[in-house]
Amino acid sequence: MLAGGLGGSRCVDALARAAGPGQVTAIGNVGDDLEMWDLHVSPDLDTIMYTLAGLLDEERGWGVRGDTYQAMAAAEQAGRETWFTLGDRDADLHMLRTRLMKKGEALSTVTRKLAEGLGVGVELLPATDDRLRTKIRTPEGELDFQDWFVRRGHADRVDGVRFQGADESRPAPGVLEAIAEAEAVVIAPSNPFVSIQPILAVPGIEAALRERRVAAVSPLVGGKALRGPLAEMMASLRHEPGAAGVRALYGDLVSVFVLDREDEALAGEIPGAVVCDTVMVSPERRTEVGRAFLEAIA
Ligand code: FO1
After folding, report:
1. How far apart are CA 53 and CA 124, in angstroms?
2. What is the pLDDT of residue 283?
3. Is the pLDDT of residue 21 over 90?
4. Global pTM?
């Protein structure tokens, strides 16, 4: 499964619950990564890990449930950067990641160690070990992804997206093999512009997908994203609104497109459409939703 953001992590969880231990490989977006307090933060990889480990703050959609914020409070008192919130326990993970990467370990190696440490039963691979960063073009100029998303609350209109470093990047070890060997390849209900395209931008990944039958799950239900600015981005980037627009965006890369029941009426006009329940906000619902996915994409 190709995944980014909260929708992606919930879908990885749903599929993992339905398919059973050791059956799922998630390829995660790294375009959102940033350095905060000189720590390497990989929000999308961490959201997947925390979700699978049952640690995610589900209400907020990021970070660790019940975390404390002593380091943040100290930074604020001292007048240091606090626009990106790191809980104490979350920061400990970033410290370990940064320490191991400074010793020369690749992000994929470190991610495997972190996931094992949290008891995560899914193989989680960053799309690339190389530096790839999403940049957002706005009327105020080009912004780093988290600057746009968190610091400025994704209030600036998006006129374009690019992935710095993508052309020189290589897929992380195991990524192309996972795509080639999977029984089914699924694009999670993540934001296509800032979660999925930065994965596809790594040379070799899209070509590997084109050799396979790929299913995508719509991130828009009733024209709206459960969370995040996708509906607004569809408009500002001049795409057809709603699930049909996302379907068109994936074009012939995808042959199965999973729509939520709420969008059943669209199915007739959407190539490869299948319909099932896709909302998996509550962890209790995820096994059932995951089973329905497996059936729908089979
Ligand atoms: N999102 C916010 O809106 N504000 C934050 O301060 C914030 C901190 C944060 C820390 C660690 C982490 O793993 C994620 C964090 N996020 C925060 C979420 C993150 O910016 C986005 O949800 C993703 O990058 C978009 O998929």
Report:
1. 12
2. 86
3. no
4. 0.97
Sign for the CA dihedral angle at 122, 33, 57, 4 comes to negative
| 297 — pLDDT class (breaks 50, 70, 90) | confident
Could you tell me which residues are beta bridge partners of residue 255? none
Q: What tokens does 14 get? A: 């749903």
Cα 154 to middle of ligand 1, angstroms: 12
CATH fold of 2-137+165-297 reads Rossmann fold (3.40.50)
**Given ligand 1 and candidates 150, 154, 199, 227, which is best to mutate, with the most ligand atoms within 8 Å of its CB?**
150
The rounded distance, in Å, linking the Cα atoms of 1 and 214 is: 10
Q: Where are the domains of the chain?
A: 2-137+165-297
Please give the DSSP secondary-structure letter assigned to residue 114.
H
**Helix H segments across 4-144?**
5-19, 43-52, 70-77, 88-102, 107-117
Atom of ligand 1 nearest to the CA of 46: 13
Closest to 122 in 3D by CA, of 226, 18, 278, 5: 18
Is ligand 1 within 6 A of the CB of residue 90? yes
